[in-house]
C-alpha cells in the first residue's frame, strides 16, 4: 500500500509558522532550490525566498487561514491548491488579504517533505 503525504499536517505547519512569526520554521519547509512566485516576486532559491519574501513579510502577517480546494499525493510528491485569508499590518494599517495558492512538496532522501514550488496570488479587495 502506498503511503501518501501528510498534507493536513504540512498545511498546518505552513499556517502555524506564519502565525507564530517563525522564520526558521518557514525556511525549513522549503527545498534549497525552491521556486516561489507571488504576484510580482519571483524566488529561485531558499536564500532569495528568505530575503524577498519571508523577512519582509514575517512580522506583518497574522491570523493566516487556509481553505482546501484540491489536494493530491503519491509516495514522493504532493500538492495542495486552496484559498487563504490573512491580516497584514504595515505602518499601523491593517488589511485583510485574500487569495489563492498552490504548493508542491517533494519527499527528500531524508524522508522529509519539503516545498519545491509555490504559486501565490492575492486578490485586491
Provide a quick synopsis of the model:
The chain is of the alpha+beta class. It is 24% helix and 52% strand.
> Structural class, judged by helices and strands?
alpha+beta
User: What letter string, H or E per element, gives the SSE order?
Assistant: HHEEHEEEE
Low-confidence regions:
none
Largest sheet properties: 6 strands, mixed
Figure out the total of helices.
3
State the end-to-end CA separation.
45 Å
Strand portion: over 45%
How confident is the prediction overall: mean pLDDT?
93
Helix content: 10-25%
What does the overall shape look like? Answer: globular
Radius of gyration: 14 Å
Strand order of the largest sheet: 2-1-6-5-4-3
Say how many strands there are: 6
Give the helices and strands, then pairings:
Elements: H1 7-19, H2 23-27, E1 30-38, E2 41-43, H3 46-57, E3 61-73, E4 77-90, E5 93-107, E6 113-123
Parallel strand pairs: 1-6
Antiparallel strand pairs: 1-2, 3-4, 4-5, 5-6
Overall description:
The protein has 125 residues and is of the alpha+beta class. Helix content is 24%, strand content 52%. It has a six-stranded mixed beta sheet with strand order 2-1-6-5-4-3, covered by helices on one side. It is globular. The termini are far apart.
